[in-house]
Amino acid sequence: xxxxxxxxxxxxxxxxxxxxxxxxxxxxxxxxxxxxxxxxxxxxxxxxxxxxxxxxxxxxxxxxxxxxxxxxxxxxxxxxxxxxxxxxxxxxxxxxxxxxxxxxxxxxxxxxxxxxxxxxxxxxxxxxxxxxxxxxxxxxxxxxxxxxxxxxxxxxxxxxxxxxxxxxxxxxxxxxxxxxxxxxxxxxxxxxxxxxxxxxxxxxxxxxxxxxxxxxxxxxxxxxxxxxxxxxxxxxxxxxxxxxxxxxxxxxxxxxxxxxxxxxxxxxxxxxxxxxxxxxxxxxxxxxxxxxxxxxxxxxxxxxxxxxxxxxxxxxxxxxxxxxxxxxxxxxxxxxxxxxxxxxxxxxxxxxxxxxxxxxxxxxxxxxxxxxxxxxxxxxxxxxxxxxxxxxxxxxxxxxxxxxxxxx
Length: 408
Fold this sequence. Notes:
It is built from 14 helices and 13 strands.
């Protein structure tokens, strides 16, 4: 077996199952899960209709890894509408089977483990695919801390020069998972300058870009490049998906766009990897990328939920409305530290909340790694407000009661 497999860490939800082993949730309350970021809003009918219509003819041949021209053009047209960024559909766009698969395989395309100290850097806390991609690519992960006092901005200045010198790839996530923080233009400029100096590639994970709570939509990586006079997108690739935007995580459809040279190499890798998208999925994806009405309605639903739930939880937890995404990144009361032997405060909070109120949240320490002696997720929990409004409100009410009872 590949010895690098032994370096992989347990996935957060595996750790959560272990944490909850032996816990009997309150049987008088129906279970509500805020633990997994799986969209629950209805899938748009027009998308389902497009998928169904394509099934008759879409399964009889092998699809091209590069995707159909109609899909690449739909993706490029969306980039122009959403960001005002022109991309060449033939050379700067590539369909992928969801951003998760693409982020992982892109790292395998870029990383050169034959070079001593090959490093992949990414924010801490993070989406665990970043770490797995580094480890299975034979690289060293470098965990860059987020700063709560700066709205969880990633502290790129804390990365030593010797680490930048051996970095081959960085993952950025904006809007961030789990914090919801959006990277501003000056932060992009800093990363572009570092990339020019050290030669590393920037992979920008933007799968939450269409769920936001401010008037201004989140800045995208390619958009930032154009604003800063980098229309060739040198050493830059953005990743996006229909999963959150269009409520179709089971469709496994997204695309990457950026540096044409990177696209060419990634396409070569994917041709051998078997990364072609089903023609039926491509047809549904064309319909989805071409429609904004369902996206606007989806965003409205999230805004209404967060407007109702966030003030309630802010009475008992350290939490505020994020810039974007569908998570609340909440600090738990200090009284939970040391409450249960052998557990961190966020673990104790999650375990006791399940037992007493049958609500599942994810301990923040499971989404981060200790770096410099500190786990930046410790003392926080991630809550995914993906369910229907009534269910999210009921979960919030239970959490408020739980916290108030614990403080007596």
